[in-house]
Amino acid sequence: MTYPAPEADAPVTVLDPGRRRPDDGDITLLDPGRSRPAVPEGLPPALHARFTVLRRLDRTGAEADVYLVQERASGAERVLKLYRGPGPEPAVRTFLANKQSRHVVTVTEAGTADDRGYEVMEHLAGGSLAELRHDDPARLGAEALTGLVRQLTDALTEVHANGIVHRDVKPANILVRRLAPLEVALIDFGISLHAPIDRSVTDASGTVRYMPPEYVSGQLVTTAFDWWSLGISVLELATGQPFLDGLDDVLIRVEITSGPVSTEAVVDPRLRLLCRGLLAQSLDDRWGAEQVTEWLDGGSPDVPTGYAAPAGAAEAEVEAEQPYPYADTEYRNRVLLAVAMTANWEHTAQLLFGDDPEPLRALNTWREQFPPDPEYTDAPGEPANVRLLRLLRSMAPMLPPIYRGVNVVRTTLPAIARGAFTNDGNLPAIVRDLWRFELLPLLATGRAGAGLTGGDGLDEVDRQWRLRRRQWHEAARGIEDPQVRTQLEGAGGARTRALALSLWATVADDNTRAEIRRARAEEARRFRLPWFSGLLERPDGMWLAYLVRDHAEERAEEQLAAARRRAWLNRNRRFREWSRRQNRPVALSWAVAGVFLMIALCAVLIGVSDAVAPASDSAVLNAWVATMFAGLAALTAEAVLAWEIGGRFHPRYSTLGAAFIALGRAARSVAGRGIAVAVLLGVLAVAAVLTAYQPMVTPLLGGLGIVSWAVPRFMRWRTDQEHERAEADRGAQELLAARAT
Fold first, then answer.
1. pLDDT for 625 beyond 60
2. I need a labelling partner for 238 at 20 to 30 A (CA). Which of 148, 404, 439, 511 fits?
3. Is 413 in the same domain as 512?
4. Which tens digit of pLDDT belongs to each residue from 440-464?
5. Cβ contact 36:44 at 8 Å
């Protein structure tokens, strides 16, 4: 037996916040009671004396370490699985020691070493079906998959006959014994249970995407668990895609308990029938060994058509004289039609409320055969999904509360709200619709169906939800920070997050509340923001703080950066003063460069004016003299300013630097760049015209501008210096306070 290794050259995909990377070796969750302390690497002495470790097999399972070893006595290669606890239940070990099926891994030895259970198994070097699906998908065609199902049916039949439920059937736990013809064996019985009768458990062990709905919602373990897992495995192998790819475990649980699994992506009709049978929501409808064997023999056992109506609902309905055709079936029963439409939600919404009004008109005509629902009104201005929900609830108000394919009940609302808060899939839109159109009371009439929960308590959830939103609005009025106030009020783009979090706060359990309270308290200690800490003292404060934590983190980082700058200013105040004085020559050079640029520009303009000759020779001569005096005055003012400011003169306070900064700011956008160029050209044109007729004015204006501009630049530098000194003093005080504590 061997285990799949990860692909070393596979590119790593960057995921959105709140999501995780699914793969073929999804992590198997451990029972809370099986958590363990760290264990030393390597084998216990008793096993080390008998086996040489060739390599550690890279597995993502959490309950054991798996090694490829060689027996010192015989040289044979084996797989050694060393559990971090006692290992499987005794009944499971007994079964593995006496199993008959070739399609269950052979365990040659099991025992305990240093209080850790272990198993020695055959080494199957062909890899897993997950690896085979990735490396050679063409090998897993319909015929090959049928053969795999036959082998796994043989394995599961023997497993179940011994009262064992595997609980972790998945492609990564099915190893290839032989490629031609393809032969496989089921491995990894680490979390298997002895359940000769239906058994409820309190743990959440298993791989979430392969768990059946009755286990997700109620931890019920029956042999039907493994048949569901087999159905998901066949679905993945047939489509080449992981089931519910990209969703985290919480959202997968919501999807599994929200209704039938879509099998439309399975191309082969026989395999699609198998998947529909194995993935029935109801335990009573789900295929087992008998139905799968019939299917393998070419039969077509019955499969459920979709959502199941509550017991007796359809039988109590009066049937219409004229049928209504829908999805290749004629319906005379409103409840059964509503069930079929609910199972095909997206298609039905598009059909009835799309561009063509005829399907809805035909349905309304057919519905006239039944007593009217006085509370139903169709609002064309509402979204198609909302209109469909109102229509279906009027036809069958007792159907399980399904909206857009999601079973909206108290047990799924926490995951729905959390997913909406983190912007997962269509959950934000669902939460917005629940709020805006007050859909929870409408869904509260739904009763439980096969594999689905009823809407008990949804009307009370809606009332508490709206009360909490009003309280949050009132809490926002006392917040000075406008961004925090906007988020708490749920205005603008923050609306969905505020709605989702307030719904989550309404339905969260005690464990979730405790975790969120602990996390926010830790953040309050880390952020050191008085307003954030103050939120935690309010009613619902931990949720309010959760809503604005991202903004608080940004503010905390800004404050931390400012504190670090203050500390740096305090540590380096002497160096900065020394640097200011030492860099005066550099500052003077920038002052000379700025004045030289002014003189050069004036010289060019006066030269052009002299060549064009609109001005007299005396006027041009006066302009040269004015240029000399203006340059001298500007140089004096600029040099004095540069000497006083020192090393920080350029670029913030110099003529050249300030001009370039202003132009750069104006040119940050395309429109701003065009305006900056136009202004610059306009100034040059005015200067050229003015110099042509009054050449002395231009150098005088230039010199006067630099001299007069020196005063505000000097005052700005003084203000900046005082601010830095104050910041440095504050940094020194903070350092003393930190040392005192």
1. yes
2. 404
3. yes
4. 999 999 887 666 678 899 999 999 9
5. no
Does a structural domain hold residue 444? yes
DSSP category for residue 261: P
What are 109-114's contacts with CB under 8 Å, separation 24+? Answer: 112/86, 112/87, 113/43, 113/44, 113/46, 113/47, 113/82, 114/44, 114/45, 114/46
Rounded average pLDDT over 7-13: 36
Report the alpha-carbon distance of residue 221 to residue 215 in Å, rounded. 6
Contact predicate 416/254, CB 8 Å: yes
Q: What's the rounded mean pLDDT across residues 536-547?
A: 88
Which amino acid belongs to residue 551?
A: H
Same structural domain for residues 659 and 632? yes
| pTM for this prediction | 0.59
Same domain assignment for residues 587 and 533: no
Is the omega angle on the peptide bond into residue 181 within 30 degrees of 0, that is, cis?
yes
Distance CA 295, CA 270 (A): 8
Contact 93/83 with Cβ under 8 angstroms?
Answer: no
Where do the H-state alpha helices sit in 528-654? 530-536, 541-547, 549-571, 573-582, 584-612, 617-645
Residue 692 vs residues 479, 536, 594, 684: alpha-carbon distances, Å: 62, 72, 24, 12
What gap in Å lies between CA 165 and CA 355, rounded to an integer? Answer: 51
How far apart CA 314 and CA 586 sit, in angstroms, is 92
Q: Which two tokens stand for residue 624?
A: 């040269």
Do the beta carbons of residue 244 and residue 252 sit within 8 Å?
yes
Name the residue among 639, 659, 613 with its Cα closest to residue 714: 639
Cis peptide before 651 (omega within 30 of 0): yes
Look at residues 557, 558, 555, 543 and name the one whose alpha carbon lies nearest to residue 476.
543
CATH number, domain of 89, equals 3.30.200.20
Cite the DSSP H helix spans in 344-457.
345-353, 358-367, 384-395, 413-421, 427-436, 440-443
345-373 residues labelled b (16+ CB within 10 A) or e (exposed): beebbebbbeeeeeebeebeebbeeeeee
Mean of pLDDT over the chain = 83
The DSSP output letter for 730 is H
Question: Residue 583: which residues within 8 A CB-CB, separation 6 or more?
Answer: 646, 647
User: Both ends of the chain: CA-CA distance in Å?
Assistant: 60
| Residue 407 pLDDT exceeds 80 | yes
Per-residue tokens: 577:
């003063």
Q: Per the domain annotation, does 332 fall within a domain?
A: no
Helices (H) then strands (E): counts for the chain:
29, 15
Residue that is written with structure tokens 């926490």 in the block: 414
Measured CA to CA, the distance from residue 122 to residue 598 in angstroms comes to 89
Residues of the domain holding 236? 129-296
- DSSP H or E segment with residue 64: strand 64-71
How far is Cα 136 from Cα 724, in angstroms, rounded to an integer? 67
What backbone phi and psi angles, to 5 degrees, belong to 542? Answer: -65, -35
Phi and psi, residue 54, nearest 5°: -85, -45
How far out from the chain centre does Cα 81 lie? 34
Coil, helix or strand at residue 52: strand
Q: Is residue 50 in a domain?
A: yes
Q: d(Cα 85, Cα 34) in Å, to the nearest integer? A: 7
Structural contact between residues 63 and 84, judged by C-beta atoms closer than 8 angstroms: yes
What pLDDT, in 10s, does the model give residues 605-618? 888 877 776 777 78
Is the sign of the CA dihedral 461, 463, 465, 471 positive or negative?
negative
